[in-house]
Design a protein that fits this description.
It is found in: Cell inner membrane; Cell membrane; Cytoplasm. Its EC number is 3.6.5.4. It is a single chain. This protein is an alpha/beta fold and 414 residues long. The protein is built from 15 helices and 10 strands. An 8-stranded mixed β-sheet has the order 5-4-6-3-7-8-9-10, sandwiched between helices. It has a two-stranded antiparallel sheet with strand order 1-2. Strand 8, helix 14 and strand 9 form a beta-alpha-beta unit. Helix 4 packs parallel to helix 15 and helix 6 runs antiparallel to helix 7. It is elongated, with a radius of gyration of 22 Å. The two termini are 40 Å apart. Guanosine-5'-triphosphate binds next to helix 9.
């Protein structure tokens, strides 16, 4: 056996850490002992304002402490950056961006959503494209190179299973002229596309009117903005749309939705600040039925998935909607902020358990190199991914396309 063969057979990062010769299963999320979810509440909706204060003074530390995966090894990626807005006070005003007010000042505006996605995913030194160029130099494959690749892939949040498959393919490849970054990029794109392809599914509007879409997610993930974008899209397609301002907790969110409604020219059902969100959803559903509306989009308050009382409130919204139509909501969209990285895994798990998530929208892919988490999510949960958000503007929502996303993740130009 040659030195090169020996090198090739030596265990890499994951095998060194997990042991065994085969790809380990994705690490399990920490047990969710603290969350009492889906507490049965049998009472009918009371049209009263929420009396007790809803706990919202959560901090990024809450998120990280309770739900982030424990660091796996010294080579693990840094803890995910939690958007500042997560701990923003409830009264915070959030301005509604104009369709083209979304670029960072000084940033030359990339043309087209794909280049914005590429730009977002290549931002930061931890991006795959840049990292690969640094370690693959068209030379013979070294053990250290394979280990570096493993580290790079795990830092990119792709998930252990996919990362190991990629590493195995690279190690077993017959590269007669040495391995270059572009060889590895092609392998990555290929594997990622294979994982993403089965989950890249359009959101199909069918069934009786209205088609009810409940939009959920943590604070600031982009729910209201995504609702505005979706409403504009459905309206353009010739459908009648109604919005329900179910984020009754944050007055600014209600205003934000009303501005979207006025801009698009569609009705918005809203209540008093602090009104019962379930009652508001019920009212909106009835109004949309009466009006023969095609699509009802229901906004909800942002809630961290580790806040049992807020997740109970969400369960109540669902129960109330189902009193009108047992099959509703017809879609439950979980909006994930790409910048939170690994935390998105527990969001999918817990929101899925409480609300039966039917599809995902991942936002802010124009501003982060952390989109790799979508691959780990697809691998583990197999939840359909409908759209990606690549900016704050009304048109910055794109149907999810596995190939484009895979190639952008790998840092390939096209
Ligand atoms: N760059 C970028 N920003 C986005 C995108 N989607 C939403 N945002 C911005 O993210 C911020 C939060 O968006 P919102 O729609 O208010 O989020 P939310 O989930 O409704 O927030 P809460 O009501 O607090 O839960 C706003 O500044 C949006 O403009 C996106 O795809 N790209």
């Amino acid at each position: 056996m040659s030195a090169e063969d020996t090198d090739r057979k030596r265990p890499g990062f994951f095998r060194r850490f997990f042991g065994g010769a085969t790809a380990p299963a994705e690490p399990e999320l920490p047990p969710d002992d603290e969350v009492e979810l889906l507490t049965p509440e049998q009472e009918l909706v009371e049209r009263t304002a929420v009396t007790g204060p809803i706990e919202t003074a959560v901090t990024p530390a809450d998120l990280i402490e309770v739900f982030d995966e424990p660091a796996e090894t010294e080579g693990e990626a840094a803890p995910p950056p939690v958007p500042d807005r997560m701990s923003a006070p409830a009264s915070e005003e959030r301005s509604l961006p104009s369709p083209d007010s979304t670029r960072e000042s000084g940033d030359p505006e990339p043309t087209g959503w794909l280049s914005r996605l590429r730009k977002g995913l290549s931002r930061s030194s931890s991006s795959l494209g840049q990292g690969l160029t640094g370690i693959f130099t068209k030379r013979r494959l070294e053990l250290s190179t394979v280990e570096d690749l493993e580290d790079l892939l795990i830092q990119a949040d792709l998930g252990v299973t996919t990362a190991l498959r990629i590493v195995d393919t690279v190690r077993d490849g017959r590269f007669t002229k040495g391995v270059g970054a572009e060889d590895v990029q092609a392998i990555i794109a290929n594997h990622v596309e294979r994982v993403l392809d089965p989950v890249a599914k359009p959101l199909v509007i069918t069934g009786p009117k209205p088609f009810v879409i409940l939009v959920i997610g943590v604070n600031g993930s982009g729910k209201t903005t995504t609702i505005g974008k979706l409403a504009a899209k459905f309206t353009r397609e010739g459908r009648s749309v109604m919005l329900a301002a179910g984020d009754t907790f944050r007055a600014a969110a209600v205003e934000q939705l009303k501005v979207w409604g006025a801009r698009i020219g569609i009705p918005v059902v809203s209540g008093e600040a602090g009104a019962d969100a379930a009652g508001l959803a019920f009212d909106a559903f009835k109004s949309a039925q009466a009006a023969g509306t095609d699509v009802l989009l229901i906004d909800t308050a942002g809630r961290l998935q580790n806040r049992a009382e807020l997740m109970d409130e969400l369960a109540k919204v669902l129960r109330v909607i189902r009193k009108i139509d047992a099959d509703a909501p017809h879609a439950v969209l979980l909006v994930l902020d790409a910048t939170v990285g690994q935390n998105a895994m527990s969001q999918v798990e817990i929101f899925g358990r409480v609300a039966g998530v039917t599809g995902l929208v991942m936002t802010k892919l124009d501003g982060t190199a952390r989109g790799g988490i979508l691959v780990a999510i697809a691998e583990k949960f197999k939840v359909p991914v409908h759209f990606i958000g690549v900016g704050e503007g009304v048109d910055d929502l794109e149907p999810f396309a596995a190939r484009d996303f895979a190639r952008a993740i790998a840092g390939l130009e096209r």
